[in-house]
């Protein structure tokens, strides 16, 4: 017998009051064969996700299923169960093994990622379980919709006509380095975070863990960004994926110079560079080139993660460029936006091409 297992789990605070939900459908998805939910006390999102998967596989075993198609909105669990990602977090290793042992009881098991909007039944069960873990009285049940809506009720872009569940980008700038203290051009060089920079990264990580709801962490390859991302990933119980296209601008011969030193070295080029995004620093790259690769990174993140929330840790120019894409703004915005070190901005990109910006340069947690 073939069945479909959909599962979800979550935590209010990550870690915080946690719960999971799972549902087993018939192969044609017309009938609910079993469902389960449970509050599991204080845990992380990823632990809850695995507990939801385990519960769904146990229900499938009890039903006598032989062919199981698992669908979840946790990219981490799907990739780890498929064998494409390693399981590194110690809290997840025994849960992963338990799930693999259950999976061996079927003739065939497949794992696929689905957007959160398509995982509505399991998501509802998981939220009811999280409410129970947090001591919240359940709300009156309403009839299950015939088909899950693809419109997120909290979407700020609904009035613009944008439709579907967006990919939400949490755009975090890296913490302080010695070059940023001295206000020097810092592009492809690889200075480490200062002591203050590490504290900034930890403060951002603590805030993001409390905020919760983050499904993946993607970082620039440069050390200052990766270390900032790693602090957040550790707090969230996630791994860091590196995307080379999120690297900072190549400032060429201006690398390590102050604004005044660069202007004195190349007065004519520097003057044009301040207002023309096609101008390259000597031996470097233009902001137009940066925009091309940042757009490529954005498209790749959307394709990989769908209707998820992704923490993107990068540098001032790529983040400004991502905000420019979301605003569909002209090149002048790059020269007018200010982004502090370790600041957070939020942009959303919708499947129909719509986009919105929800936040720019938050630093209250520092």
Give the helix level as a range of percent. Answer: 25-40%
Can you tell me the residue ranges where pLDDT is under 50 for at least 5 consecutive residues? 139-159
Number of domains: 2
Radius of gyration over C-alpha positions, nearest whole angstrom: 23 Å
The CATH topology of the largest domain corresponds to: Rossmann fold
Q: What is the architecture of the largest domain at the second tier of CATH? A: 3-Layer(aba) Sandwich
CATH superfamily of the largest domain, called what? Phosphoglycerate mutase-like
Number of helices: 11
- Percent of sequence in beta strands: 15-25%
Count every beta strand, where a strand is a DSSP E run of 2 or more residues: 11
Structural class: alpha/beta
What does the largest sheet look like? 6 strands, mixed
Q: What is the highest CATH level, the class of the largest domain? A: Alpha Beta
Strand order of the largest sheet: 8-7-9-6-10-11
Shape: elongated
Could you give the order of the helices and strands? EEEHEHHEHEHHEHEHHHEHEE
Question: How would you describe what is shown here?
Answer:
The protein is an alpha/beta fold and 366 residues long. The chain folds into two domains: 148 residues, Nucleotidyltransferase, domain 5; 204 residues, Rossmann fold, CATH 3.40.50.1240. 36% of the residues lie in helices and 22% in strands. The protein is built from eleven helices and eleven strands. The protein has a six-stranded mixed β-sheet with strand order 8-7-9-6-10-11. Strands 3-2-1-4-5 form a five-stranded mixed β-sheet. Helix 6 runs parallel beside helix 7 and helix 10 crosses helix 11. About 6% of the residues have low confidence.
């Amino acid at each position: 017998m073939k069945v479909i297992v959909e599962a979800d789990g979550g935590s209010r605070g990550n870690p915080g009051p946690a719960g999971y939900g799972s549902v087993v459908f018939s192969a044609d998805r017309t009938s609910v064969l079993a469902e389960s939910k449970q509050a599991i006390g204080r845990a992380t999102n990823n632990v809850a996700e695995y507990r939801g998967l385990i519960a769904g596989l146990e229900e499938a075993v009890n039903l006598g299923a032989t062919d199981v198609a698992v669908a979840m909105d946790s990219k981490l669990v799907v990739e780890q169960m498929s064998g494409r990602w390693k399981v590194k977090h110690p809290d997840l290793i025994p849960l992963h093994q338990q799930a693999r042992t259950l999976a061996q009881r079927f003739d065939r098991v497949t794992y696929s990622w689905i957007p959160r909007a398509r995982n509505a039944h399991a998501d509802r069960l998981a939220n009811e379980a999280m409410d129970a873990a947090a001591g919240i009285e359940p709300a009156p049940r309403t009839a299950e919709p015939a088909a899950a809506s693809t419109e997120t009720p909290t979407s700020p872009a609904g009035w613009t006509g944008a439709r579907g569940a967006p990919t939400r980008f949490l755009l975090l700038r890296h913490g302080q380095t010695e070059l940023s203290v001295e206000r020097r051009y810092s592009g492809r060089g690889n200075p480490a975070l200062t002591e203050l920079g590490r504290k900034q990264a930890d403060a951002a990580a603590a805030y993001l863990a409390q905020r919760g709801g983050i499904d993946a962490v993607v970082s620039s390859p440069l050390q200052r960004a990766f270390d900032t991302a790693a602090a957040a990933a550790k707090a969230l119980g996630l791994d860091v994926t590196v995307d080379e296209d999120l690297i900072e601008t190549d400032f060429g011969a201006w690398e390590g110079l102050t604004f005044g030193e660069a202007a004195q070295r190349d007065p004519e080029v520097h003057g044009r560079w301040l207002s023309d995004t096609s101008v390259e620093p000597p031996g470097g790259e233009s902001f137009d080139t940066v925009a091309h690769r940042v757009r490529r990174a954005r498209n790749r993140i959307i394709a990989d993660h769908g209707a998820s929330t992704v923490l993107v840790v990068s540098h001032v120019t790529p983040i400004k460029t991502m905000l420019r894409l979301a605003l569909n703004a002209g090149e002048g915005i790059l020269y007018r936006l200010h982004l502090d070190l370790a600041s957070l901005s939020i942009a959303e990109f919708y499947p129909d091409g719509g986009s919105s910006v929800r936040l720019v340069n938050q630093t209250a947690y520092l």
